[in-house]
Amino acid sequence: MRTYALKRGGSPLYLQIYEGIKADILSGAIPAGEKLPSKRALAEHLGVSKLTVETAYSMLLSEGYISSRERSGYFAEEASMPVPAREAAGAYPRGACTDSPGGSSRDIAASGSAPSEETGFPFSVWARLMRSVIMSGGGSLLSPAPTHGLRELREAIAGEILRERGVRVDPAQIVVGAGTEYFYSQIAQFLGPGLGWALEDPSYHKIAKSYRRSGAEVFPLKADAQGVIPAGLEASGAGVLHISPAHHYPMGTVMPIARRGELARWLEGSEERYIIEDEYDSEFSFMSRPVPSMQSMDRTGRVIYLNSFSRTLAPSLRMSYMLLPEGLLDAWDERMGFYSCAVPVYEQMALARFIHEGYYERHLRRMNRAFSRARRETAELFGASPASELFELLRQGPGLHFLLRLRRGDGGEALRSALAASGISAPLLSDMYIGEPPEDAFRTAVIGYSLDPERLMRGLNGAAALLS
Question: The domain containing residue 212 runs over which residues?
């Protein structure tokens, strides 16, 4: 049985066990198919509680590094994706949140899940930084921002990516833009519509709209519990794949390492293939460490990474960023360099200081604690509520939303209306499909967590009463 050198007083013991086993699986020290020790046996061997090992195993299980077989135990899974040396060694830097962003603002329940004063957003700090920028910025505030965005902000973002994801990037690779929807159309122009664009189905509805408006042909791809099915991707003939592997919206799945490896091999099959990695909502993982990003493992130089501050700070702050592979920088500047940066200079300066001075990291910690508590309390309240007789709570994983399925009845507009009448504005899962939605999608709502779970539960109980 392997022994992991646990450091008391350092990072949590469950994270040290998780990182040790993960590193062994990635390096091949634990080959695919090998049975892991039972939770009790490993706990006794390492001198820790069974709960500590159980937490580490649940993280490995949710990310696809191991699988569970009934009455047989836990087994290592194939993890053949190329991994950088610092990641294979389990050397992620410690960060406030453990899964890295934001994507763009989504249509989720209006019951309080959007970042706001409710989450403890430091308005006084932000206001002070804005005043400081305005007072000290002088004439520079009136000058146009560089095409890629201010150097100060790009350096701050590069530091944040390193801290959160263990990915070392040059600030020159970062492009700042006014929201991810802005980048959707820009990337479509850059790569050209003729490649064909494959999207997860269901997915955030504005992605398909943006690409189609840019003249691209969109191919909806069926997905299973692990994400896009590679066989369908190959058969589509698409040259561009847009995915959210860290946390899929709306299904809530996290793409395991083995499936990421399959998509990486698809990418390597032709020089005319690209992946758009949209890391929506991935700061809010609550417990698990991040599965390495597709961008950080890319050997082709054709993975374009998107992230946003709209979800972590405020929807009104339309500020996102794109990480371009070094090999695409010159082509981007040649084709897209005539566009001006659409984000005001003073907002970029304020955000750069907000990150550099540590306020962003502390804010993310507060949000993760708040939503982790809301997630737990929502599940507890739901289990004892009248609503549980009519509804089934699904996909309560990472992120700020969950799926709620009607156990009986047709759903559709009746479900939407009952939720709205009870104070919950939420789209149906059927709204998210590019192709024909399955029947149960009309009976499933996409609901955002509220930091007031009791209020949310009153709404769900009210909707259940209207539908009964």
Answer: 117-360
